[in-house]
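Final report, Chapter 2: Outcomes

The project's central promise was a pipeline that accepts a single protein chain and returns its three-dimensional structure in a standardized token representation, suitable for archiving and comparison. That pipeline is now operational. To close this chapter, we reproduce one record exactly as it appears in the project archive, with the input sequence first and the structure output second.
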Amino acid sequence: MNYKYPLTLFTPCYNGGENILKLFDCVEQQTYQNFEWIIINDGSTDRTNSIIEKRITQSSFPNIRYKNNPVNKGKHRIWNEAADMAEGELFLPIDCDDTITFNAVSFYIEHWNALNDKSQYSGINVCCYNPKNGEIIGDKYSKEGLITNNLELVFKYHLKGEHWGCIKTELIKRIKFPEIKANYYSGMYLISKIALTGQKLICYNKPLRAYYVINQSLSHSAYRDFKFSRVYMEFHYSTWKIFHLTNYLLVNYPKELIGIYKGFIKSIFRILLFPFRKLL
């Protein structure tokens, strides 16, 4: 497949108009500029739409594609929309309340283009850092240039904390999140399905994304409410893991099976107890 750009940057936004202004500055100052930026406003209830529209008119970055959804669909479903829209070879998500280093895009593209056989790889992972002190947040990879996949990162290396990565666009156009009504769906679903294709990640201990926790963001607010949609999502994902990860774990990491079955049982109880949540 021929792509218009080497990379698509994707930003979902929910009530994060003020926060995304810092990200505009980061995008405009990237050392590599031949990429596109897709922004989707997911039914914000504040002035986010007008803030973004105004900032786009002032931006020096020419390749912005903006979509304003009047109704909140959930991060997983607007991810699917962005995947359909994407015209870059790599797909790189970044939340509206985060910032990135000025060489972030060039790092991904340079390291991707250095690969001899891209068909074997699904993407590239890097680290995040604390914007207050510049220190890496989350576990470092066991070695620079580690070749692995996201299931191994969880079940073999037991990696914890925030990390950041790009994915081959052809994969996310083919492998989509379930179109169920919820504020979000676990990102592990998508990257687990990609890992099951047999393609590998390359991981670097390069801190390229500043990680913030801001209550207004789509990532940290809209889908943290205790709603039935969230409980159902957890049940849906837990059920998927039972049917699709059991064989993989049985062969590779049998001790980890206990965890996914416990999670499945817990999700059933949460579904059953949800009508009585105010009494508990």
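Archive annotation: The two ends are 54 Å apart (CA to CA).
This record, like all others produced under the grant, will remain available to the consortium after the project formally closes.
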